[in-house]
């Protein structure tokens, strides 16, 4: 039986560079995507009757180069790619081809062998419609033959290919006691005998583009004796701390399946199971490594540290139907730090914390919490999956082809937000009825302008109004006022908080007139609630400095008189709080639905923040502070 590497002629003359579209979908997070794609494929594979769990193992081996089947033919194809690179490869990608060339010059090649147990393997033969064909040859066709599959786009093979310096993988699967072996290399298009013959960028190892039955001539690392599938990444890239980072990815993406006992993962001797997964989340070294790199999303891992106990021991668990989305489970657990995290699960796999309609936080009316949302019916799982990108790490209705179904899903996501808000109101609402107001204001406030310099004016008690005249003692929240021009001594800036909380401001223009109009989506209930909250729990700001940066941006520095969460609101000085200015973005903290900003403060520690507003401001700005 003759085997070789073959790259077919492309008779239509089209071409591909070193990275095709499928590989580009995964290049930002190679290790994270490797874990997600490989493990979801194993979980989706048919199970053997006696298997209670699927085990996936990752192991690096160093193998002799001569043991790689038909390695000389693969090298000749790579040489043709390099020779044709001026035509088919972007200049910035040429280095990747030379790195692949260097790998093939070594006497030994590192492989990452990924093997599974507890499955029945990948069904063949390699014909259209069969899982083996869909995985190795198809483009944009999911290799899963049932509705409950975790993947769907048919691009998952690109994740292990990306982790190879040679963009080459081998597949060895044992299906019904037959061990089929096949290779795939995704290089770049290249010329053949002359410049009239363009060969495809994708080539296959086997017999005439087809898989072959394992033969004793092949290396033992290609053998698969038990039912199941091995993926071998040829020329595995030298990812620093790959073992620890892959462990973090496995824990944060599959903590549900692992906790249920449906999945066990071994990474170079490290076992991640229901008995050990908590250790991964608590390992300080893993956390530091995650913080120091960009492959494994740091925010997702940190949130997963809260999602895991939320799933295992929720303080509140509810289920019910969400109109136009289907049935869902909700797991809720309070946090002590007032962070508000919402994550989406599907088929025992973490999908995303960036859920449309739920990205913006719900404000300081609720205690901090972790919430997990899980579709609980086949139809709701299918609908959620239809909104996921190829990497299955996000949610967007634009992935739905049907306009009617897309509009239905958008309406369903709005209903999901309403359902979440209902749950928060019922379980996590903060009762402020018994809180009490304390005056924190001073008799005199004074500041000079200073051109582009940040003012050093400091009020020793922390309450701030920037003004050039004596003011009367009034009952109002802690505030700071910034001149929009910042180029002259500020004039009188007395604030009458009674006027701030009334509908009738003498001398002010009507909201529908030529004066400032009420910002979008900021109703009176929110404003009055905010003012009430501020009156009940003001916070002193010390060592305040403020600087005008642009018509809608300013910088503020201060230290807070307490440790904990601080909430800031911005309003036009002297205006009705119903027309207060909405904070759009800030360099620190979390922007809330009501236009406020929450950040963690420590007593005596200087906080420096640049704040952007949703609209320009003129004149003076009021910055209000209270405990969150």
Main pleated-sheet profile: 10 strands, mixed
| Strand residue percentage | 25-35%
Q: How many helical stretches?
A: 15
Structural class: alpha+beta
The proportion of residues forming helix, as a percent range, comes to 10-25%
Between the first and last Cα atoms, what is the distance in angstroms? 73 Å
The CATH level-2 architecture of the largest domain is identified as: 2-Layer Sandwich
Low-confidence stretches: 143-153, 434-528, 574-578
CA radius of gyration: 30 Å
Assembly classification: single chain
Coarse morphology: globular
Number of domains: 4
CATH topology of the largest domain: Heat Shock Protein 90
Mean pLDDT: 81
Can you tell me about this structure?
- The chain has 628 residues and is of the alpha+beta class.
- It has 4 domains: 4-238, 2-Layer Sandwich (Heat Shock Protein 90), CATH 3.30.565; 240-296, no CATH class; 298-427, Ribosomal Protein S5, domain 2 (2-Layer Sandwich); 431-502 and 520-628, no CATH class.
- The strands form 5 sheets. Strands 1, 2, 3, 4, 5, 8, 9, 10, 11 and 12 form a 10-stranded mixed β-sheet that branches. Strands 13-14-17-15-16 form a 5-stranded mixed β-sheet. It has a 5-stranded antiparallel β-sheet with strand order 18-26-21-24-23, with helices on one face.
- A hairpin with a 2-residue loop joins strand 4 (164-175) and strand 5.
- The radius of gyration is 30 Å and the shape is globular.
Descriptive labels:
25% helix, alpha+beta, Heat Shock Protein 90, Ribosomal Protein S5, domain 2, 628 residues, 27% strand, 26 strands, 4 domains, five-stranded mixed sheet, ten-stranded mixed sheet
């Amino acid at each position: 039986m003759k085997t070789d590497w073959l790259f077919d002629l492309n008779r239509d003359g089209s071409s591909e560079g070193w990275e095709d579209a499928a590989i580009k979908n995964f290049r930002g997070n190679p290790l994270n995507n490797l874990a997600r794609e490989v493990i979801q494929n194993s979980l989706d594979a048919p199970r053997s009757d006696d298997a209670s769990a699927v085990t996936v193992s990752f192991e690096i081996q160093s193998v002799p180069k001569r043991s790689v089947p038909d390695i000389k033919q693969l090298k000749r194809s790579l040489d043709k790619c390099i020779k044709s690179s001026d035509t088919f490869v972007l200049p910035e990608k040429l280095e990747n081809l030379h790195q692949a060339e260097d790998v093939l010059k070594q006497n030994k090649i590192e492989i990452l062998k990924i093997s599974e147990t507890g499955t029945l393997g990948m069904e063949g033969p390699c014909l259209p419609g069969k899982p083996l064909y869909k995985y190795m040859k198809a483009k944009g066709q999911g290799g899963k033959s049932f509705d409950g599959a975790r993947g769907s786009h048919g691009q998952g093979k690109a994740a292990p290919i990306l982790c190879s310096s040679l963009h080459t993988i081998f597949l060895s699967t044992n299906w019904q006691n037959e061990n089929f072996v096949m290779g795939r290399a995704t290089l770049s298009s290249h010329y053949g005998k002359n410049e009239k013959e363009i060969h495809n960028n994708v080539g296959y190892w086997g017999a005439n583009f087809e898989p072959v039955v394992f033969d004793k001539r092949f290396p033992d690392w290609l053998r698969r004796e038990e039912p199941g599938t091995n993926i071998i990444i040829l020329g595995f890239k030298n990812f620093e701390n790959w073992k620890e980072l892959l462990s973090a990815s496995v824990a944060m993406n599959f903590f549900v399946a692992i906790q249920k006992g449906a999945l066990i993962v071994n990474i170079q001797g490290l076992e991640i199971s229901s008995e050990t997964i908590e250790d991964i989340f608590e390992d300080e070294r893993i956390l530091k490594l995650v913080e120091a790199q960009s492959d494994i999303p740091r925010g997702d891992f940190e949130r997963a540290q809260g999602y895991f106990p939320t799933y295992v021991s929720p303080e509140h668990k509810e289920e019910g139907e969400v109109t136009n989305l289907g049935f869902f489970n909700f797991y809720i657990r309070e946090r002590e730090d007032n962070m508000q995290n919402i994550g989406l699960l599907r088929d025992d796999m973490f999908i995303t914390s960036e859920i449309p309609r739920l990205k913006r936080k719900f404000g300081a009316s609720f205690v901090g919490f972790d919430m997990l949302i899980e579709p609980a019916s086949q139809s709701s799982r299918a609908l959620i999956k239809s909104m996921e990108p190829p990497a299955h790490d996000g949610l967007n209705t634009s992935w739905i082809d049907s306009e009617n179904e897309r509009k239905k899903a958008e309406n369903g996501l709005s209903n999901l937000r309403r359902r979440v808000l209902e749950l928060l109101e019922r379980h996590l609402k903060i009762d402020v009825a018994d809180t009490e107001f304390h005056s924190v204001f001073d008799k005199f406030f004074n500041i000079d302008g200073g051109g582009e310099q940040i003012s050093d004016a400091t009020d020793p008690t922390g309450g701030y109004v920037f003004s050039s005249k004596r003011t009367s003692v009034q009952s109002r929240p802690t505030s700071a006022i910034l001149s929009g021009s910042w180029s002259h001594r500020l004039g009188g800036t007395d604030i009458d908080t009674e006027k701030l909380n009334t509908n009738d401001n003498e001398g002010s223009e009507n909201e529908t007139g030529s004066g400032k109009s009420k910002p979008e989506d900021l109703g009176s209930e929110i404003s009055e609630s905010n003012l009430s909250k501020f009156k009940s729990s003001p916070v002193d700001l010390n060592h305040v400095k403020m600087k005008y940066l642009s018509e809608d941006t300013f910088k503020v520095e201060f230290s807070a008189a307490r440790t904990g969460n601080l909430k800031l609101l911005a309003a036009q000085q002297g205006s009705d709080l119903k027309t207060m200015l909405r904070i759009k973005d800030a360099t620190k903290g979390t922007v809330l639905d009501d236009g406020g900003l929450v950040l963690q403060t420590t007593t005596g520690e200087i906080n420096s923040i640049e704040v952007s507003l949703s609209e320009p401001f003129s004149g003076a700005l009021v910055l209000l502070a209270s405990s969150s």
